[in-house]
Each structure stands twice: as structure tokens, then as C-alpha cells.
């Protein structure tokens, strides 16, 4: 998801860059491990390719989605983000899960339209106002009548999950010390903020996003009538408890935002069923790899450099290990469900 809108991504980008500069200057950048966990929990060498299923050969594959599809990165061993398919400020990794899937399947024609901070509105319209002033063309523009496989990861930004998650951050491991926490101050209180007055506004936003996703899936069917559509949910990286200072929040707030992620994935599953897409569960296989786990175990990063692959990514977004896990889950799904592949 990335779900970070540009005004939220900019301060995190600056902070991540500063963290990296300090780490490098002090000689603290950790040498990356030669092995990384994948979805089933075992360790594989960084150079090992995902296991390749044997479905019918795919002639054209298009990836659509937000930052959890782009697997947004600020800088890694490949350098700055990939500009092959989208502007640099979409922050696409060269090794995000769509690219790994396309390579493993030997796809003839591939397009990756994913972009950080994308919403369903950016599928039919240009995504403007990116951090460096770039514009990502409408994601639907990459679809053609020849498209045979489409992966879609969207919905988190429509529901406002990313900004709500930032509201949970707390410099202190105690309940919000302010009665009305001004926006942007890291004093937590996200549960109190979004449930004030007895109405859970975040739950309402999630429900309101469902028809938007259904419309997306139906539009893909119209544009690419022979395509198989996979609706990809969100990895299990948001814990149901805090682990201060790694995840600076209170247990109450983390339990709340974790529950909202469960609601978000349930909404994606319903929308897939109503819109004629296949639901791919990445949440269950990724249990045990949340932000509170160790640096070589977690599938998403906190602040600072990643030790899965040398990189600085966007906090609370999939890292290199998470991207490999996402790719393997999709490949395993296709291997076990080869039907309708054309």
C-alpha cells in the first residue's frame, strides 16, 4: 500500500536519507546477510530465484497498484528507483514482486504501473503531485486487449490507512499526553482520534472503498477481456502490539491499527469476489514477519537502512525480503491454480 501520499512521503524520505548518512559516516551500515527468509520461513541465498511454477506461458502481464506493489525504495544496491515503467518519484524497486514474478514466468511483454501513494482514482486518471513533481500516467493505460495476467494491489490509500498509521506513532510508550493531538505530532492516540464519538471513521472509510475496488476489477475486465485478474492483499507486517522503541506506539494503538489492516484485507477479498477477480492471500503466509521481529526476519522496515538487501526504504513498507515473499506467494498461487491461464 503505499500507501503514503506525497506530503507524508517527503518528511519520511528526508528522515531516511539522514539516517543513512549518519550510519554511513559512523561506519554503522550493517553488511547484508547472505540469506533472507521467504514466505515459508526458511532461509534462501540472496541469489536464489523464486521457484517457478508451470502454468501456461503468459504473453502479457500488467501490474497495477500502490506502494506495496511498487515495494517503494529510496535507494538500494541498484541505485535510485526504477524508471523503466514509471517516474522516479513512484519509487519502484527494481526487485519488486511484479518484476520477480514476470522474470520467473518468462513473460514476453510486461508493464509495471504501480506507484507510491496511488489510489483507485489514479487507475483511470494521471497521478500528479508526486514528491519530485512527476506524473504517472493512468495505470489503466498499460492494459491492452492482449493482456493475459493482471495483479492488483490497491485500497489502502483510499481508506487512509497510511496516514492513520502515522497517527499511531508515539515518542513515549504511554497513552497520548494531549487531549487533542495536533496533526503531525508523534504522540499517538490514533484509536481515540478515529473512534471519537463512538463512530469508527477508519472502518467507515474501508467500507466506502469497497465499491471503488469492485469498479476497478470490472473496468479491467472490459479493457482486457481475456485477462486473469489477481487481487493481492496486504502482508502481515503490522503487529497487534507495540515493541518500543522499534515500533514506537502503545499496545492499544497498535492493536487498533492491526485490526484495521484485517478489515482492509477482508474488504479486498469481498471486492475481488464481487468484481470477478481472484483473491491472493499474502497475509497468512507472512505471519511471523511483522515490524517487531528481527531485522533479517521482518518483511517490512522501520526507520534506517535495511539489512535484508542494502537499502533505505520507506518505513512500514515491504523490504527486499517482503518483495521476495510476495512474489513467491503469487507464483505458488499460480502453480496451484493454473486454470484460466491463456
The termini sit apart by: 28 Å
How confident overall, as mean pLDDT? 84
Radius of gyration: 19 Å
Estimated share of beta-strand residues: 5-15%
Instruction: List the helices and strands in order.
Output: HEEEHEHEHEHHHHEHEEH
- What is the tally of beta strands? 9
Model description:
The strands form 3 sheets. This protein has a 5-stranded parallel beta sheet, with helices on both faces. Helix 3 packs across helix 10 (about 320-335). It has about 350 residues and is an alpha/beta fold. Mean pLDDT is about 85; it is low at about 1-50. It is globular. About 50% of the residues are buried. Among the domains are: about 1-25 and about 160-215 and about 240-265 and about 300-315, no CATH class; about 50-60 and about 80-145, no CATH class. It has 10 helices and 9 strands.
Layout of SSEs?
Blueprint: H1 6-25, E1 35-37, E2 43-45, E3 60-65, H2 67-70, E4 73-76, H3 97-105, E5 109-112, H4 121-124, E6 149-153, H5 156-159, H6 161-167, H7 190-194, H8 201-223, E7 228-232, H9 251-275, E8 278-280, E9 311-313, H10 320-336
Parallel strand pairs: 3-5, 3-6, 6-7, 7-8
Antiparallel strand pairs: 1-2, 4-9
Helix pairs in contact: 3-10, 8-9
Amino acid at each position: 500500500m503505499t500507501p503514503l501520499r506525497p506530503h507524508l512521503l517527503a518528511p519520511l524520505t528526508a528522515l531516511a536519507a539522514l539516517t543513512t548518512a549518519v550510519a554511513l559516516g559512523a561506519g554503522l551500515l550493517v553488511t547484508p546477510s547472505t540469506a533472507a527468509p521467504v514466505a515459508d520461513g526458511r532461509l534462501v541465498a540472496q541469489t536464489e530465484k523464486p521457484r517457478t511454477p508451470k502454468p501456461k506461458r503468459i504473453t502479457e502481464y500488467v501490474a497495477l497498484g500502490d506502494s506495496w506493489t511498487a515495494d517503494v525504495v529510496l535507494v538500494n544496491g541498484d541505485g535510485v528507483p526504477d524508471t523503466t515503467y514509471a517516474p522516479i518519484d513512484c519509487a519502484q524497486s527494481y526487485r519488486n514482486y511484479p518484476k520477480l514474478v514476470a522474470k520467473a514466468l518468462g513473460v514476453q511483454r510486461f508493464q509495471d504501473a504501480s506507484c507510491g501513494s496511488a489510489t483507485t482514482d489514479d487507475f483511470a486518471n494521471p497521478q500528479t503531485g508526486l514528491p519530485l513533481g512527476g506524473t504517472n500516467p493512468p495505470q489503466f493505460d498499460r492494459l491492452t486487449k492482449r493482456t493475459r495476467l493482471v495483479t492488483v494491489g490497491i485500497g489502502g490509500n483510499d481508506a487512509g490507512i497510511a496516514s492513520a498509521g502515522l497517527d499511531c506513532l508515539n515518542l513515549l510508550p504511554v497513552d497520548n499526553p494531549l487531549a487533542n493531538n495536533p496533526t503531525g505530532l508523534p504522540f499517538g492516540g490514533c484509536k481515540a482520534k478515529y473512534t471519537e464519538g463512538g463512530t469508527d471513521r477508519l472502518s467507515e472509510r474501508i467500507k466506502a472503498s469497497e465499491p471503488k475496488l469492485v469498479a476497478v476489477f470490472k473496468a479491467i475486465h472490459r479493457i482486457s477481456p481475456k485477462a486473469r485478474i489477481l487481487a493481492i492483499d496486504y502482508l502481515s507486517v503490522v503487529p497487534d502490539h507495540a515493541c518500543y522503541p522499534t515500533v514506537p506506539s502503545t499496545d492499544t494503538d497498535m492493536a487498533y491499527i492491526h485490526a484495521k489492516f484485517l478489515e482492509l484485507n477482508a474488504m479486498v477479498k469481498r471486492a475481488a469476489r464481487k468484481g470477478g477477480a481472484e483473491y491472493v492471500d499474502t497475509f497468512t503466509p507472512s505471519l511471523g514477519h511483522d515490524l517487531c521481529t528481527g531485522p533479517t526476519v521482518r518483511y517490512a522496515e522501520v526507520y534506517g537502512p535495511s539489512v535484508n538487501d542494502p537499502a533505505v526504504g520507506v518505513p512500514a513498507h515491504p523490504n527486499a525480503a517482503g518483495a521476495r515473499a510476495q512474489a513467491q506467494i503469487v507464483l505458488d498461487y499460480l502453480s496451484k491454480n493454473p486454470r484460466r491461464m491463456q
